[in-house]
Write a structure and sequence with these properties.
313 residues; alpha/beta; seven-stranded mixed β-sheet; 13 helices; globular
């Protein structure tokens, strides 16, 4: 398949953006998709969890000097598997995220074009850009380089307004600089199915963004922190919570790749690849198998959390 370059972004810290990027990398590893993770967040959490082998150069050098001698020595294999590579980030990126200099914004796109070329290096099927939680220069450079943008949010009060601002930035970048950029969807993270507040906020997001909201929400599970702390893909964390959220990431990846192939988001019945992500190849073939537990139930008319509950007679 063609190389998909996906910017994973949020406008608020603490929503689990890096968790989503790593979960997608884990799901891609399970499917045999060769992946490059580019850690644009100065905190470097994705780098720490992927635990790559040392490289001579990092992302800061790539963004300032995107030339083959630098690019060829900046990517290294992760501790997860030889099919997951990393372009590492660190606190040096903080200086590149601020200031008026716009001249380096296209450099990430130039670097990705070099990495995506099978004649110049490893051939990647998927490139994930873990962006900082802001619309600074690093995130804008990611939107210039990406073919798709995936927004991560929590089911909280400001989810809709934050998503609106993010999609406005995506649309502005698409119109002015990168016509190939497409919104791939909204991923709701840290979902608790027993929370009336969370149910209301997800319904609110769906009312505003329709099919762009992923049909599966990522459950709030301790296994995510446990797997990250041990530098292990979530798909190898064999606890009930780990298996549940790994299944949810399979669904998100399948929907994301399908949206990327079509060039825009469609609300269609699940296709074979998405059914296989949920149930496995045998059940996908005959259409059997239950849906993932991470998918929240739908409500026709959501009730606000502070509204009184109806009296049952």
């Amino acid at each position: 398949m063609a190389v998909q370059t996906v910017a994973v972004l949020s406008l608020k810290g603490g929503v689990g953006k890096t968790t989503v990027a790593l979960g997608l990398a884990s799901a891609a590893l399970r499917r045999g998709i060769k992946t490059l993770v580019i850690d644009l967040d100065p905190q470097g959490n994705a780098t720490a969890t992927l635990d790559p082998q040392p490289a001579q150069f990092g992302l800061a050098e790539v963004l300032t000097t995107p030339r083959p001698p630098i690019l060829s020595q900046a990517v290294s294999r992760s501790a997860w598997d030889e099919s997951v590579h990393v372009l590492t980030g660190n606190h040096d990126l903080e200086e590149l995220n601020e200031g008026p200099d716009e001249g380096t914004l296209p450099n990430l796109a130039r670097a990705i074009a070099w990495y995506a070329d099978p004649n110049t290096g490893p051939r990647y099927d998927l490139i994930l850009l873990d962006c900082p939680p802001s619309l600074g220069r690093l995130t804008r450079s990611a939107l210039l380089a990406a073919t798709g943008a995936l927004l991560v949010t929590e089911p909280t009060l400001y989810a809709v307004s934050g998503a609106q601002r993010a999609f406005a930035a995506i649309e502005r970048t698409r119109k002015e600089h990168n016509p190939g950029l497409r919104p791939l969807g909204v991923v709701v993270n840290k979902f608790r199915s027993r929370s009336h507040e969370h149910m209301y906020r997800i319904a609110e997001l769906r009312e505003s963004f329709g099919p762009l909201v992923m049909p599966v929400a990522l459950p709030d599970r301790l296994a995510v922190q446990q797997a990250a702390g041990s530098c292990t893909p979530i798909h190898e964390w064999s606890t009930p919570g780990g298996r549940e959220i790994a299944l949810a990431f399979n669904l998100v990846l399948a929907r994301m790749l399908r949206s990327s192939r079509r060039g825009r988001h469609h609300l269609d019945p699940p296709e074979a690849d998405e059914a296989e992500a949920t149930n496995g190849p045998d059940q996908a073939a005959n259409g059997s198998g239950a849906a993932t537990q991470a998918q929240p139930p739908r409500a026709n008319k959501p009730r606000r959390p502070d509204e009184p509950q109806p009296v049952r007679r």
